[in-house]
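Appendix C: a fully annotated inverse folding record. The material below is reproduced so that readers can follow the format used throughout the book. The structure is listed first as tokens, followed by the designed sequence.
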């Protein structure tokens, strides 16, 4: 059923995995002809363009997806990643800051903001973003350990120890 949106997206993913970009592009564009502002289809089209090596086109499509919705940070996160791959740290930081303002309680956005601060040469702000991420995840042991590892990479052993302590409070028997 060509009108079945989930099936069309899944078939496009299969085409992308098999590097049949033209077939996937045709399918996704056909889906967009029925609903031009479908953010999920636009997101997948951006993924396709990225995987095909067309980062500028992927960024344009993800920007459209981001413009049409306000509940899902994935298009914005994808834009940040693409800009960083293009070594455009300043532009990535601008997008990450805007995402953080819109999705202030999303841990993935917060960690991306931290990374872009570090990549943009602002380690103090990167550490502050990691500190905020620590607050956000509460007593989620796995995430605390992950953030602690990021703190170690940032050269902040005291903060990493705090993350480990919070993780152990949640799961005292965890190795």
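Designed amino acids, in order:
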């Amino acid at each position: 059923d060509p009108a079945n949106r989930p099936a069309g997206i899944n078939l496009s993913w299969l085409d992308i995995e098999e590097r049949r970009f033209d077939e996937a592009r045709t399918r996704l564009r056909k889906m967009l002809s029925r609903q031009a502002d479908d953010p999920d289809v636009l997101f997948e089209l951006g993924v396709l363009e990225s995987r095909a090596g067309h980062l500028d086109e992927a960024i344009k499509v993800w920007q459209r997806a981001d413009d049409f919705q306000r509940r899902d940070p994935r298009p914005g996160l994808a834009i940040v990643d693409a800009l960083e791959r293009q070594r455009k740290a300043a532009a990535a930081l601008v997008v990450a800051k805007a995402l953080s303002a819109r999705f202030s309680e999303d841990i993935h956005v917060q960690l991306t903001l931290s990374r872009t601060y570090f990549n943009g040469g602002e380690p103090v702000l990167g550490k502050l973003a990691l500190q905020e991420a620590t607050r956000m995840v509460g007593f989620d042991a796995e995430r605390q350990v992950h953030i602690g590892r990021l703190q170690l990479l940032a050269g902040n052993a005291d903060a990493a120890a705090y993350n480990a302590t919070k993780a152990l409070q949640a799961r005292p028997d965890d190795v």
